[in-house]
Amino acid sequence: MAKLSFPIIIVNFKTYPESQGKRGLELSKAAERVARENGVCIAVAPQCVDIRLIAEAVDIPVFAQHLDPEAPGAQTGHLTSEAAKEAGATGSLLNHSEMRLRADIIEGAIRRAKGLGLATCVCANTPSMGAAVSAFSPTMVAVEPPELIGSGVSVSKAKPEIVRNSVLSIKKIDAGVRVLCGAGVTSGGDVAVAIKLGSEGILVASGVVKAKDPSAVLNDFAKSIWPKK
Amino acid sequence: MAKLSFPIIIVNFKTYPESQGKRGLELSKAAERVARENGVCIAVAPQCVDIRLIAEAVDIPVFAQHLDPEAPGAQTGHLTSEAAKEAGATGSLLNHSEMRLRADIIEGAIRRAKGLGLATCVCANTPSMGAAVSAFSPTMVAVEPPELIGSGVSVSKAKPEIVRNSVLSIKKIDAGVRVLCGAGVTSGGDVAVAIKLGSEGILVASGVVKAKDPSAVLNDFAKSIWPKK
Amino acid sequence: MAKLSFPIIIVNFKTYPESQGKRGLELSKAAERVARENGVCIAVAPQCVDIRLIAEAVDIPVFAQHLDPEAPGAQTGHLTSEAAKEAGATGSLLNHSEMRLRADIIEGAIRRAKGLGLATCVCANTPSMGAAVSAFSPTMVAVEPPELIGSGVSVSKAKPEIVRNSVLSIKKIDAGVRVLCGAGVTSGGDVAVAIKLGSEGILVASGVVKAKDPSAVLNDFAKSIWPKK
Amino acid sequence: MAKLSFPIIIVNFKTYPESQGKRGLELSKAAERVARENGVCIAVAPQCVDIRLIAEAVDIPVFAQHLDPEAPGAQTGHLTSEAAKEAGATGSLLNHSEMRLRADIIEGAIRRAKGLGLATCVCANTPSMGAAVSAFSPTMVAVEPPELIGSGVSVSKAKPEIVRNSVLSIKKIDAGVRVLCGAGVTSGGDVAVAIKLGSEGILVASGVVKAKDPSAVLNDFAKSIWPKK
Hints:
Four copies of one chain form a homotetramer.
Chain A: E1 8-12, H1 21-38, E2 41-45, H2 51-55, E3 63-64, H3 81-86, E4 91-94, H4 103-115, E5 119-124, H5 127-134, E6 140-143, H6 155-158, H7 160-173, E7 178-182, H8 188-196, E8 201-204, H9 206-209, H10 214-224
Helix pairs in contact in A: 1-10, 5-7, 8-10
């Protein structure tokens, strides 16, 4: 279970064919190289069936894309924090716009993951949602306006006030929560602006996974993520 | 991807600690031994994160506990048939009483799995539900009255008419669908009665996973599953 | 509680402003007039809050758009069959493409409604779904390809084989189930074709509610619904 | 649309037979009498089909038990704020423990209701959930530990720290949000303690609806709700 540090880049593999199974393993190795070379934390979030494959092969944090709040027992089709941890997961995304959750399930899943030492990155579709989920004290909140996801237009440039307001309102509720932003991030410039606005990392998917040269994109992101002095 | 044959015993690992990760792997190896010794098909259905671990180590069918109907693409937290197949799955349970699904999702998931050559075992809480889901032509339907799940009282002995009616109504709709029964199966006697009533296999969970000696229980099941002449 | 007869026209009011509250009441009165003049059964399905308002004012069947399967008791935000019946409902739509339900909830809601003498019209997005839900013996099944809903292109003309296959497969499973078709029905010609293909009625929404002259459209439908000799 | 004032007593009618249709109307009239005699705001939350019946007959606030966030349009089985308002609703409960909602739906439903001048009372199963939903600025938050609902053991007496912590954390996030408490409230003593702990009202269901003499219970509550000097 590799360690988290900030700033962080989390690459959501979604269910893209380009990041499934063996291809996801190759992408994770590329992410590991870029992370090492740039001294930046890069985490990957593959489909659940691929967590162990990747966690055994690389020394970067591997996230689940979703965790259920239930304790081990008589459930079918769920993914417990215990099983994800044994498979090598460092943490999990929760409440992604493509997997929105009941409010009580978000709270329950954060609590359960935390009890096992797993990190959580809760996605929020609005700044006020970012504030709301911060009341559950997850490790991170990633603010992603759904209309920009996969758009190629980055939230940091198109709606800088969303990033700024999110940072303010989240930190006011729990200063310990790390704020990420996502949606439409495709260039180092997008990343630099996000960091300048107070974000401590980014959540990215198609911008890396669907890129012609994912390593080059990640490298560009990694070089842009340290705040300029 | 190991081959299916009938009669079949499917062991649902649920999210029990006794069948998670390494312990699930040991249980799968035990199932493989019993299957080989008795010439009976035994499949295991571990948590999603454990599918590849087990599928790589044993030569018996490995089932997912759930599959989503979506094609690969921009989804987060879903498990596609493609990813499950690449990880080594032979098929999947669907619509278990602990993971009930929308009717259109059952149909969609069956269609998608079938397109990739994956088997499906759809759970049904009533005989009429068994008939209903047969209209989607899954590989198997497992009829399990939810009130008997985990009860230690087997459906084949407590409610033989449920098994008999299910077989009749399912075969009438699609004679190619294999009928399993489940819920409360704990002994070879339960299995023998189920087969006598027309069932072509059983779906079992705690009766094996929570047993003091799972191998002995599986052995008892396997010896009882061939119809007596 | 007005009586049902076949052929039937069911007008789904959805949550359109044109069919809400007082405007829905006027539309229901218009439907009553057309029904009376043409000797055709026309039912309306308003939003839940409007059921009593309309059922008290007109003598045509009033349907809920959805019913929950639970018995009266400690539930919040649900609509029981008992309360819908007391408010004057004759029956309910279930599993509309805009309100898809878990398979076990479809079965449960049909059973509960039937126990109170309420009719059910279960929507099906495919012919095989039509066959599946027929195993629960609802009063009616309405087959509606979702891609044609609101399209202005009628299922009876664009995909006649869907109507024909649905009638065959539903009647094979339960000859007592009445088969309706829907999606894209806007003219008497669409209705006539639907009836010719074996349908015993139609489910319509925007084709009537959004029409410039809903009475004229309903009149056209009503005149076209009796099978030509 | 009767006006809200604080302190408030909200009576959730759930789907109890004792508060359905005509019986719900009688109960609402009793609540109106007690409200008038004691100068206390009492609101009732009947099943959706009964909103208009009751709102037309009494001059106290009538709440829906749930509202959907969608704008009027092509939805089936939903209840829009517009239709609830036209039927006479003053506001709505949201996210009751028996109707838990996705976080984004809570935010969306509050925003939509507010836009139409409808009040919202969001239920929270924990103090941190109370804090979370306050980030969406509903009119009220009602903190109800689900294990005490219907128990006859009041949250104000059994777990006073839950009420106190909720008031503190909610007011810190949005001082304009009114804090109610609920679960297990059956006597004036429970109400007095709740008010003393900082609550501005109570949410009650079986304690009133299932009482032998609901008027007497409401009267007891109303007399106990004014803070003692």
